[in-house]
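Page 42, continued from yesterday. The earlier attempt failed because a stray header line got pasted into the input along with the sequence. Redoing it now with the clean sequence only.
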Amino acid sequence: MNTKWLIKDAPDALQVENLKNEMNVSEVVAYMLVQRGITEFDDAKSFFRATLKELHDPFLMKDMERAVERVNIALEENQKILIYGDYDVDGTTAISIVYGYLSQFTSSVAYYIPDRYEEGYGVSEKGIRNAHENDFSLIITLDCGIKANEKVDLANSLGIDMIICDHHTPGKELPDCIVLDPKREDCNYPYKELSGAGVGFKLMQALAQTNDWDEGALFENLDLLAISIAADIVPVTGENRLLAQYGLKQLNEDTRPGIDILLNLAKKEKPLTLTDIVFTIAPRINAAGRIDDAKKAVVLMTSNDETELREIAKTIHEFNDERRTLDKEITEHALAIVEEDPDFDKKCTTVVFDESWHKGVIGIVASRLIENYYRPTIVLTQSEDGKTWTGSARSIKGVNVYDVLEKCSTYLEKFGGHYFAAGMTLKNEQLDDFVKRFDDEVRKVIGSESLIPEQIIEKELPFDSLFNMGESVFEVPRLMRVLNQFEPHGPNNMKPLFLAKNVYAHDAKLLKEVHLKMKVYQPNFQKHIEAIYFKAPEALEIVQNGPFDMVFTLEVNQFKGRTTPQLMVKDVRPHRG
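This time it went through. Structure tokens are written below.
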């Protein structure tokens, strides 16, 4: 797939020089800090060494006082509290945090996760009626509920109060209950991009401060919060970055038993990054809800019974293997449908559907299709009643898929989500009109340039500036060790991309016929540096035919107990001089 190379604007040279001298760091590090708006020593210190004291006051969130008051009434009167969460990673980690913490202070708390296939996403009528039948007085929703107006009305009619903790974009009218959502238009909370688990965490933080509970016990759940931030693809900036920093530290240094067993089954070694969570932990937790029962994921994250955990972890691991098989089969089927569409090249979107596809993996398939075609994508499958289609949308930079769906809402029974991901349900007879309208609305906000993925490059970085005098290419250089402190990386804080020009390859070869492995050097730096370019067999000819330009990230390769620097190549082009 062709990509567009965009080099960020250079920051102010004087600010870079001043910060470099004040911090005693390299020009590259100072350059990147100023590029991120960090120009003062104290700001840089906070970026690298922030403390949990810098977390925002939870009471800055609209309705937080009301929420705390209502939970405390339930605790004082021993009312039954139901924690209601979604079945994905964000939802199950949120339940694990809130249920796990609250259960230290009351035995009258339970949790509920809707069945993906019987009830679908979000608050269900079955869930509300189940709460009523079991005498629950208060429902706290996590990662769902912001558009569940009718379900909240039902709960109100049954005498059940609700507190909604959500991070999705609200509809035009808020549900008639206590609503915690930083995306509320009337909410002045300083950080708008918390995960669903993050909103639940802030409620627990507010309760801890009000009731003088042990906040340290709450912070022991930051590993789960880091998992939610990684899995839900929320921006890794501001408060999310701080929470993820401490969460990753805990995940690596004091791994909870269930996650540790899961990592062993996956043969994944620590230390883990947010990327490792996305590709190793998140799919396995998700597999529980996609293939069977998401409650298993909550038990995995909250139990200390080793026998129980080994059994559940093994089951979840097997679910993930089944999920991968379904993912592969449906992706191949979807790709074939696209290839057979004679009008595909005229469209700005990819929309595919089949009544037999497994509902649990269509979101993953949508992401796979974007990897191939890079355009807003929807994958739909038939609902169990045969009367509606249910689907998952994934999007690209420049297209807010939630906004697009809102403009298509005439054809939808329900929808919800955020910028890059959403879900929807529509009646069978609306399918053709919806598909056309979706493409029309995307076309209004996108140009042909937007359908070309971008490589956003920090700066040109010649190989000789990677290593200080005397540093070996077989040892991780100081620059890389410092740049590692820019982690954790994720949306809006991606791993830095660099550009090297006039590069030559030595010993270039394909591994398993698809992955390009080579050693690279430049005329003014003859030492050979290890480099790898995954899934790029077509690049072999380019690197073998003379000098080329290369976009790359700096990585650490750990193999047989040895740690060495490695360049992870993202794109190559013939050098034009």
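Notes: DSSP finds 20 helices and 18 strands in the chain.
Reminder to self: strip header lines before submitting.
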